[in-house]
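new request in #modeling-help
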Amino acid sequence: MDYSVIITILVVFGILQGLAGGLVYVERKICAYMQNRIGPNRVGPVGLLQVLADGLKFIMKEEFVPRYADKVLFILAPALGVTCAMLAFAVVPFGPTGDPSLPGYKDDYQFIIAKNVDIGVLFILAVGSLTVYGIILGGWASNSKYSLIGGLRSSAQIISYEIPLGLSLLGVILISGSVNLETIIWRQATTHWNIWFQPLGFLLFMISTFAECNRLPFDLPETEQELVGGYHTEYNAMKLAFFFLGEYVHMVTACFLMVILFFGGWHFPLIAETDSWLIVKLIVFLVKMSAFILFFMLIRWTIPRFRFDQLMSLAWKVFIPLALVNLVAVMIVKELDLWLWLLLPASLAILAGAGFITTKPAPRKVPV
Amino acid sequence: MPIAETDVRWVKAPTLGLLDRLYLPAIAQGLGTTIKHIFQPRVTQQFPEQRPDLPANYRGLHRLNRDTDGRVKCVACFMCSTACPARCIDIVAAPSPWPDREKYPEMFVIDELRCIYCGLCEQACPCDAIELTSMFDLTGLSREEMMFDKEKLLSVFDQTAGIGKDPVRTKGGKLSCASEPNVAGI
Ligand code: SF4
Ligand code: SF4
């Protein structure tokens, strides 16, 4: 029995739960700064204890279940959401990992819970999309119209965005020749980052991730203006906190994934090469991940929410065709053994081409 | 009268070019705006410690002014309670104990919870006896506490007079016997 795994699990999940609270604080601060405000600053130094105060508030509140709600499902929903989000984290490297093709790989300590899982990306996609069950169940079990509409929107949205999410990853997987996340990192560390070959894939992946995590501009399942709170309208206390926890863990996982798949994981030219110290690699990795989280938050307070039909047409009419064309480009390059760098101009050309196709001719003159 | 043809100006919606259709430049521009704001000075006022600088014509809590002898200025003419749209001023008049006026308010109660702070009482008062100060953070634990009587309203005057935030007098000059110094000594 390898005790290091158990310790890793405890430490990682402990940190993840604390991180969710911390991210709420960061998010509120960033939001405040972008609106020329100060943000939470009353509880503790610079408001840092706000996280504790919020947590305490969640715990102390009355656990309320609406009378006409389906009690079992109502309580199960947030638990399911948070479990799936946490589970997906099992195969995500959160620090430096070695070369998985070496025989001693499994015996050394690696910064990942489940080492060398050969279906890494598939596992994350499969388990990550299960989190939508929590949302749909919550919306259904609440027995309220707002919740139900929120849940339905969520299911439609996530099913639509699963497709471009998966398709945009296929390019990376083809280039790396593996779905094992550690192998993907190692290949990037020894050659080049995938972002150079797949900028379009990255763009599609990132935007689909926004939709997957229900982050603004795609937070239609919980639109405050129309749906009160969407799927969590009827929730309070710890059950609501669990939904938030699941959402933030999902976001952290997504940010790790973007760094791993497109930005070389712990690798950074000259600073963190394959033979650098572990601590340097770890810091590089976490800094990259934090940068993405900050970017998520900046976007949240920058772009207004999409309308639902815009959301759907974006997924089905823009992202899926673009992802498919991108995939075909990778396939051609791989099949004909062309120079991999051709993919960079190809990606840009595909994007520009899509822009040209959708550019409408000037509207006809309005008859007077 | 129909709109003349020459007055009509047709405006066409701007056509979206390639970059506009990609939306990415617009998003980058938006990010630029929000990031710019991060480094701008904060506008937040730390309220309880930092009091807002309210203008002198702010319509907050009422006060009943005193004349130079420290007596209540009000002559119980009922103009304010007549003007009040919320009907929240309750006055009981009595013959004045002083020779320079006929009446004075024996009781003067404003229900600050019913008041809509419109300032009509201040405008109606012929001798500037009632004014709205810039005090806005009045709190109370009961409804009775928020019925401000004469003593309370006079004490508001004592608190707010001379802090440099005296309400703007809408009309200067001689307003009434009670509003001027008691020169005649009658
Ligand atoms: S401010 Fe308006 S509502 Fe309030 S007492 Fe004066 S007249 Fe009445
Ligand atoms: S406050 Fe002014 S208007 Fe009201 S009764 Fe007194 S003198 Fe008349």
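bot summary: Chain A touches chain B at residues 30, 32-38, 298-299, 301-303, 351-352, 354-356, 358-360, 362-363, 365-366, 368 (CB under 8 Å).
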